[in-house]
Amino acid sequence: MAAAAAGLRQNACVPSSSPTPLFHASHLHKRYGGTTVVDDLSFEIAPGECLGVIGPNGAGKTTTIRMCLGLTTPDGGDISALGLQMPRDALAIKAQLGVVTQFDTLDPDFSCAENLVVYGRYFGFSKAHVRARVPQLLEFAALSHKADARPGELSGGMRRRLSLARALVNDPRLLLLDEPTTGLDPQARHLMWERLQVLLQQGKSILLTTHFMDEAERLCSRLLVLDHGRKIAEGRPRDLIAEHLEPDVVEVYGNGALSLAESPELKAMAARVEVSGETVFFYTQDARRLLDALTRHSGLRTFHRPANLEDLFLKLTGRQIREDG
Amino acid sequence: MNTTTATPSAIASPPSPSVWRAPGISLRWWPVFLRNLLVWRKLAIPSLIGNIAEPLIWLVAFGYGMGALVGQVSVDGVKVPYILFLASGSICMSAMNAASFEALYSAFSRMHVQKTWDGIMNAPVGLDDIVLAEMLWAAFKSIFTVTAILFVMLGLGISHSPKLVVAWMVLIGAGITFSSIALIFNALAKGYDFFTYYFTLFMTPMMFLSGVFFPLEQLPSAVRAVAAWLPLTNAVALVRPLFMDQWPADWWLHAAVLAVYAVAAFWIALALTRKRFRG
């Protein structure tokens, strides 16, 4: 593995001139018919980094992943990975990538162990080579006891972990994960996060798309916020929150809550007031004064919490439901 | 996607390569073929019984029942028993059916329903190699079925010609031709229902226009002119004389027709599949 990694590093140095990130996309454009789905998108993934891509449905996340895999040809811009050029070297790049797609593509007719062996063959690995790695991969996916079970007999979380194990069959340096925890219960999600943390500690890099802001905050060293195919923010999760939001949020609901949004006294204590449905959100530097003022109004329920990534996401992309999603 | 397409330079806005470019084929089709083989191995025996039962029911019911009425049929001036006439035609039909079912329903399941192809393409295997593997796989299933039926026909004593070995090789070619044609419709399908059109509008008429059940001489000359260019007609024209222990007349012409169908259909199927996945 060390030798392989050294080989990769050498590879990376040969064709490119600038200091090479593991993955580099610049000025990507993609149109479908008259609609622009990815608009001048550039980003990089450094070795060992977890880059999160968040955005509402239809923001261009999946199209971006497909372009990264050479499955969709961009209308403009270029992508290089591991010192190779997409789409020209698509197969050589994919030989060194691990991919978990939004929907499982496991073989329903094969057991977990067979799924890994069959998938390894697509990378040119012999049965014996993958067989030797199967126990380790299944153990990593917490599926050792399910080696002979078929995907149909597994829970959703187990299937996602099998997909992750399958993506590791070629010991990739970079993983592309498209919504890896969508549809999982909290236990399964936490187990997935734990495994992804282990991979990051091993020095692997990850590109992750997600709808879960706690997932993005927990795993990602850097975030890319997409909307309508454009990058609207980029940075470390904490920095982004500090840059765009006040530190505290007070949510108010109950009888007469909506009228408070218009109260000059309360508005003076908040930097920003938002109304969504029956709830009023006060974004403020000083929650104490605001909470004191709110105690004078009866029949209200309040919830005080620090501003989080979800607030940032909603501020940047709006609260409207996306029809195209 | 492949090394055969020469991209002169990776400029800022590379045009999408044409879906009609030459096939980019490598040895990477083999693990895909092997995958299908390993799945099928688990269900081979029941599927074999299903695959050969239907053609044999046709053969026995029609061949012996109808054969008693018809007696002998004249093929190019030679009188042959109807059961031989029917057996040599229906084995071509079996090759066609087996290849078509696999390249339509089963390939569509893998491509569209199970998303097996998408999973494979996230590994270093290109779409061209997947389509080639599916084509060869459907042809393999077809020849597997045909071989089993041939042995049953040998057992029934329908023909004992050593030229059956040549017929077997012709049927391999027919399997390739029909699986390539079926993959065109696979590439166009939105759902399984679509294949009903292929069966009712293409395969069923062809069965009756290709001399499987009755000699083409029975048809009006205009229909015969069309029928002469159908792939099944050409397969039957090669296989039937071999069953009769004769060398087919104009064998190169019939073989060429099948080959042109195979190459053209595979190319069209590949282009349409590329278009489907380009999204």
Q: What's the quick description here?
A:
The complex is a heterodimer of chains A (325) and B (279). Chain A has helices spanning 2-13, 61-68, 90-94, 112-122, 127-140, 156-167, 186-201, 213-219, 237-244, 257-260, 264-269, 287-295, 309-317; strands at 23-32, 35-45, 50-54, 76-81, 84-86, 97-100, 174-178, 205-209, 222-227, 230-235, 248-254, 272-276, 279-284, 300-306. Chain A is of the alpha/beta class.
Give your account of this protein's structure.
Chain A has 325 residues and is an alpha/beta fold. In chain A, 37% of the residues lie in helices and 26% in strands. Chain A has 2 domains: 2-239, Rossmann fold, CATH 3.40.50; 246-306, Alpha-Beta Plaits (2-Layer Sandwich), CATH 3.30.70. Chain A has 13 helices and 14 strands. The longest helix of chain A has 16 residues, at 186-201. The model of chain A is unreliable at 1-19 (pLDDT under 50). Chain B has one domain (53-278). Helices cover 71% and strands 3% of the residues of chain B. In chain B, α3 runs antiparallel to α5 (127-156) and α3 (82-113) crosses α9 (231-243). The longest helix of chain B has 32 residues, at 82-113. Chain A binds chain B through residues 27, 29, 32, 66, 69-73, 75-78, 85, 87-88, 90-92, 94-95, 97, 99, 101, 103, 105-110, 114, 118-119, 121-124, 167, 170, and chain B through 1, 7, 10, 12-14, 16-17, 28, 31-32, 34-35, 38-39, 42, 114-116, 118-126, 277-279.
Task: Give the arrangement of secondary structure elements.
The complex is a heterodimer of chains A (325) and B (279).
Chain A: H1 2-13, E1 23-32, E2 35-45, E3 50-54, H2 61-68, E4 76-81, E5 84-86, H3 90-94, E6 97-100, H4 112-122, H5 127-140, H6 156-167, E7 174-178, H7 186-201, E8 205-209, H8 213-219, E9 222-227, E10 230-235, H9 237-244, E11 248-254, H10 257-260, H11 264-269, E12 272-276, E13 279-284, H12 287-295, E14 300-306, H13 309-317
Parallel strand pairs in A: 3-8, 3-9, 6-7, 7-8
Antiparallel strand pairs in A: 1-2, 1-4, 4-5, 9-10, 11-13, 11-14, 12-13
Chain B: H1 29-41, H2 44-70, E1 72-75, E2 78-81, H3 82-113, H4 116-121, H5 127-156, H6 164-188, H7 194-209, H8 221-227, H9 231-243, H10 251-278
Antiparallel strand pairs in B: 1-2
